């Protein structure tokens, strides 16, 4: 009760670092049976928790890091890619999460878990002729899969143009009349899918092929004028997780427009109201006993903890290595580490992983999935 | 990739009297054994031949879930079935229990589909099953994908539009439902009544953006938006909806989205109709639409026949005034964006004489100090 009063009576909004840290530290080891519904997403739990800890700049003890590596190794499928848990089938979403988690750990032990040759086989096994990817063998198609595939392929240096043949055009066909992107062509523009499609195109170097102006208009319109947070779709409610999926698009668009020769871009701020988003997250999305959430009245969970903190980081940090401008609402202690807007792990970890895997040759495709 | 409700403490399942030995013996003397009482697989005679396979989390697990006894039991046996590649009726029955415990386990769903084929199961029955599951858990990817597979195998979409309409009656914006609906309509060419369906939804809630999207979907795949009669009808429809609910962003987005490829200024009289609405039905969306009209006019002036320089200056002035109004008063949450658009427009069409020095140059100096 006293922490609740703290949040709502203090002159400055405060990030409840200690409470979030305890919540995350515990969850990394033990989860209640309420998490049975995520039994096919355990690499996600690793990523959500590890990324939250890295944003909070809390170190991961070496023993824990090693345990995560060994667990994720058990989630790796013998035919390549990572599954939601030991013994399950490979799926692009836990593959994305596992690779990201291992890159956050960033030790040789972590990098060595990934079987790059088999991972490439797995990506080929889910590739479709029209450029899209199914999420798993015998599974559904949507734009998340392209992002997951592009993310892991680029980080681990197994990316070839052939692997992503037609993918660019397929993703582009997901941009709709609203300016945002849908999960599959024809559907409503949606923040999660828009992030996935845009970030995938950035990885492929093709983001300029989007109607960037229309996309920019759509995403800035998703910030709620009263709440300060973002909605996922037009005329729907605010949700803390869109603090990342939506606000994270602005750094991507800023860079894309810059590359297109846009001269009038701000040199200090993203094109969304950074302070208002920080206010929404700090005042409305924190559980007083640790963890973050969708909106007041909802329960905390590790997914929202990860994406609220990721969004808070985006809202605090403008720029890149060379030009960095910060907007920290409240005390300096509210400051989080910066996050990479494409991969959503810390930029140093991205650079380190790329450096590590670029020393290795791109594997030859071993399985018989490559299309002619 | 969804959040979940997390309980603050895990609830211990209270098994109650059924597991009290004395009472149990007494019951068996006088009553038939309750057939609905749950029995663990490890205690079922028909499963005695199968050795359960515990989950291999390793010696120092992470993100370890405190599974209930029931959950562990079912999945220990699921793993055993998988290991033996068992394709039997009992395996099929177990998948339903596994799904009930975690409908997001895509490995179980895949296995169930393998069994459906291998055992030549009645797919009509499977349709009933998946209908019930989706009604209980409509926001899950796997259940909708499974339904799509069964519909494809049966090549029978006859129940789909009605079923999806029922799901949408409970949540008119369920993304999976709309995705399935678009797939069915496109695959089986069921376009005929869809515009009517959309209009009914918009009657119920004119702010339902999913319904506006479906409107666009139907029209673009049937008549298309090239026919001027269609465009006029749609403009009329939008303006009517705007009059009823002026602050409905969906209607304005639809109006713009429909016209933007052709160019907003291509539609004669539209600007005037919107300017009329400005007096009584103004909104940030109306103003943004006006801005877009002016910007489009500027875009086309430079390409078409020579227009009075005064006229171009006037259009630019009006556009910049809207940017200022939006940034400073009417849509301040998007201040950074509107100011950027203003600078861009000025940079592109202005001739430098109009403006003061951009303020951002000062900020660049202070930014490096703040570093």
From TrEMBL, chain A:
<comment type="function">
    <text>Essential subunit of the farnesyltransferase complex. Catalyzes the transfer of a farnesyl moiety from farnesyl diphosphate to a cysteine at the fourth position from the C-terminus of several proteins having the C-terminal sequence Cys-aliphatic-aliphatic-X.</text>
</comment>
<dbReference type="GO" id="GO:0004660">
    <property type="term" value="F:protein farnesyltransferase activity"/>
</dbReference>
<keyword id="KW-0479">Metal-binding</keyword>
<dbReference type="GO" id="GO:0005965">
    <property type="term" value="C:protein farnesyltransferase complex"/>
</dbReference>
<keyword id="KW-0637">Prenyltransferase</keyword>
<keyword id="KW-0677">Repeat</keyword>
<keyword id="KW-0597">Phosphoprotein</keyword>
<dbReference type="GO" id="GO:0097354">
    <property type="term" value="P:prenylation"/>
</dbReference>
<keyword id="KW-0862">Zinc</keyword>
<dbReference type="Pfam" id="PF00432">
    <property type="entry name" value="Prenyltrans"/>
</dbReference>
<dbReference type="InterPro" id="IPR008930">
    <property type="entry name" value="Terpenoid_cyclase/PrenylTrfase"/>
</dbReference>
<dbReference type="GO" id="GO:0008270">
    <property type="term" value="F:zinc ion binding"/>
</dbReference>
<dbReference type="InterPro" id="IPR026872">
    <property type="entry name" value="FTB"/>
</dbReference>
<keyword id="KW-0443">Lipid metabolism</keyword>
<protein>
    <recommendedName>
        <fullName>Protein farnesyltransferase subunit beta</fullName>
        <ecNumber>2.5.1.58</ecNumber>
    </recommendedName>
</protein>
<dbReference type="GO" id="GO:0006629">
    <property type="term" value="P:lipid metabolic process"/>
</dbReference>
<comment type="subunit">
    <text>Heterodimer of an alpha and a beta subunit.</text>
</comment>
<comment type="similarity">
    <text>Belongs to the protein prenyltransferase subunit beta family.</text>
</comment>
<comment type="function">
    <text>Catalyzes the transfer of a farnesyl moiety from farnesyl diphosphate to a cysteine at the fourth position from the C-terminus of several proteins. The beta subunit is responsible for peptide-binding.</text>
</comment>
<comment type="subunit">
    <text>Heterodimer of FNTA and FNTB.</text>
</comment>
<dbReference type="InterPro" id="IPR045089">
    <property type="entry name" value="PGGT1B-like"/>
</dbReference>
<keyword id="KW-0808">Transferase</keyword>
Automatic annotation (TrEMBL), chain B:
<keyword id="KW-0677">Repeat</keyword>
<keyword id="KW-0637">Prenyltransferase</keyword>
<dbReference type="Pfam" id="PF01239">
    <property type="entry name" value="PPTA"/>
</dbReference>
<dbReference type="InterPro" id="IPR002088">
    <property type="entry name" value="Prenyl_trans_a"/>
</dbReference>
<protein>
    <recommendedName>
        <fullName>Protein farnesyltransferase/geranylgeranyltransferase type-1 subunit alpha</fullName>
        <ecNumber>2.5.1.58</ecNumber>
        <ecNumber>2.5.1.59</ecNumber>
    </recommendedName>
</protein>
<keyword id="KW-0007">Acetylation</keyword>
<keyword id="KW-0460">Magnesium</keyword>
<comment type="similarity">
    <text>Belongs to the protein prenyltransferase subunit alpha family.</text>
</comment>
<dbReference type="GO" id="GO:0005965">
    <property type="term" value="C:protein farnesyltransferase complex"/>
</dbReference>
<dbReference type="GO" id="GO:0004660">
    <property type="term" value="F:protein farnesyltransferase activity"/>
</dbReference>
<keyword id="KW-0808">Transferase</keyword>
<comment type="subunit">
    <text>Heterodimer of FNTA and FNTB (farnesyltransferase). Heterodimer of FNTA and PGGT1B (geranylgeranyltransferase).</text>
</comment>
<dbReference type="GO" id="GO:0005953">
    <property type="term" value="C:CAAX-protein geranylgeranyltransferase complex"/>
</dbReference>
<comment type="function">
    <text>Essential subunit of both the farnesyltransferase and the geranylgeranyltransferase complex. Contributes to the transfer of a farnesyl or geranylgeranyl moiety from farnesyl or geranylgeranyl diphosphate to a cysteine at the fourth position from the C-terminus of several proteins having the C-terminal sequence Cys-aliphatic-aliphatic-X. May positively regulate neuromuscular junction development downstream of MUSK via its function in RAC1 prenylation and activation.</text>
</comment>
<dbReference type="GO" id="GO:0004662">
    <property type="term" value="F:CAAX-protein geranylgeranyltransferase activity"/>
</dbReference>
């Amino acid at each position: 009760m006293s922490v609740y009063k703290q949040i709502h009576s203090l002159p400055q909004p405060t990030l409840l670092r200690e409470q979030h840290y305890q919540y995350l530290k515990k969850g990394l080891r033990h989860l209640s049976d309420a998490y049975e519904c995520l039994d096919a997403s355990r690499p996600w739990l690793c990523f959500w928790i590890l990324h939250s800890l890295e944003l909070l700049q809390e170190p991961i003890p070496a023993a824990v890091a090693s345990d995560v590596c060994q667990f994720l190794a058990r989630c790796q499928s013998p035919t390549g890619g990572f599954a939601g848990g030991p013994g399950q089938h490979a799926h692009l979403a836990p593959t994305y999460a596992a690779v990201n988690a291992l890159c956050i750990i960033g030790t040789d032990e972590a990098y060595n878990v990934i079987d790059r040759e088999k991972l490439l086989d797995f990506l080929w096994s889910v590739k479709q002729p029209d450029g899209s990817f199914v999420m798993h063998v015998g599974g559904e198609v949507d734009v998340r899969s392209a992002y997951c595939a592009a993310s892991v392929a680029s980080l681990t240096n197994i990316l070839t143009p052939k692997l992503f043949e037609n993918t660019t055009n397929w993703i582009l066909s997901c941009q709709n009349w609203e300016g945002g992107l849908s999960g599959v062509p024809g559907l409503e523009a949606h923040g999660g899918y828009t992030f996935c499609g845009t970030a995938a195109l950035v990885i492929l170097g093709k983001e300029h092929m989007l109607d960037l102006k229309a996309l920019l208009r759509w995403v800035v319109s998703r910030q709620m004028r009263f709440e300060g947070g973002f909605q996922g779709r037009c005329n729907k409610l605010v949700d803390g997780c869109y603090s990342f999926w939506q606000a994270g698009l602005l750094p991507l668009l800023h860079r894309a427009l810059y590359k297109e020769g846009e001269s009038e871009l701000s040199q200090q701020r993203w094109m969304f109201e950074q302070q208002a988003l920080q206010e929404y997250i700090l005042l409305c999305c924190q559980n007083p006993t640790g963890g973050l959430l969708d909106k007041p009245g909802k329960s905390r969970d590790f997914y929202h903890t990860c994406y609220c903190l990721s969004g808070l980081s985006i809202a605090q940090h403008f720029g890149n290595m060379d030009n960095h401008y910060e907007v920290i609402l409240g005390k300096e202690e509210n400051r989080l580490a910066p996050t990479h807007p494409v991969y959503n792990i810390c930029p140093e970890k991205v650079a380190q992983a790329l450096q590590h895997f670029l020393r290795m040759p791109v594997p030859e495709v071993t399985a018989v999935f490559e299309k002619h | 990739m969804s959040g979940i409700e997390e309980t603050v403490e895990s609830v211990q399942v209270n098994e109650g009297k059924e597991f009290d030995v004395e009472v149990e013996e007494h019951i068996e003397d006088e009553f038939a054994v309750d057939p609905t009482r749950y029995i663990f697989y490890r205690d079922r005679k028909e499963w005695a031949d199968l050795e359960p396979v515990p989950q291999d989390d390793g010696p120092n697990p992470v993100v370890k879930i405190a599974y209930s006894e029931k959950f562990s039991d079912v999945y220990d046996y699921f793993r055993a079935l998988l290991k033996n590649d068992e394709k039997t009726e009992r395996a099929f029955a177990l998948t339903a229990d596994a799904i009930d415990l975690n409908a997001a386990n895509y490995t179980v769903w895949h296995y169930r589909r393998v069994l459906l084929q291998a055992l030549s199961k009645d797919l009509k029955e499977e349709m009933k099953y998946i209908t019930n599951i989706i009604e209980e858990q409509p926001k899950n990817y796997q259940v909708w994908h499974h339904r799509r597979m069964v519909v494809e195998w049966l090549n029978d979409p006859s129940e789909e539009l009605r079923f999806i309409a029922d799901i949408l009656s409970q949540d008119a914006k369920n993304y999976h439902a709309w995705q399935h609906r678009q797939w069915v309509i496109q695959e089986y060419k069921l376009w005929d009544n869809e515009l009517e369906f959309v209009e009914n939804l918009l009657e119920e809630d004119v702010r339902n953006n999913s319904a506006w999207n479906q409107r666009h979907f139907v029209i673009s795949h049937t008549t298309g938006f090239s026919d001027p009669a269609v465009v006029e009808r749609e403009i009329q429809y939008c303006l009517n909806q705007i009059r009823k609910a002026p602050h409905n962003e969906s209607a304005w987005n639809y109006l713009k989205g429909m016209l933007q490829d052709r160019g907003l200024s291509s539609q004669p009289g539209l600007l005037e109709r919107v300017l009329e609405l400005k007096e009584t039905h103004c909104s940030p969306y109306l103003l943004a639409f006006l801005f877009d009209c002016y910007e489009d006019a500027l875009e086309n002036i430079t390409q078409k026949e020579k227009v009075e320089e005064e006229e171009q200056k006037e259009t630019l002035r009006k556009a910049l005034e809207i940017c200022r109004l939006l940034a400073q008063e009417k849509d301040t949450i998007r201040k950074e964006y509107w100011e950027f658009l203003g600078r861009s427009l000025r940079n592109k069409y202005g001739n430098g004489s109009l403006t003061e020095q951009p303020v951002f140059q000062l900020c660049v100096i202070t930014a490096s100090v703040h570093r």
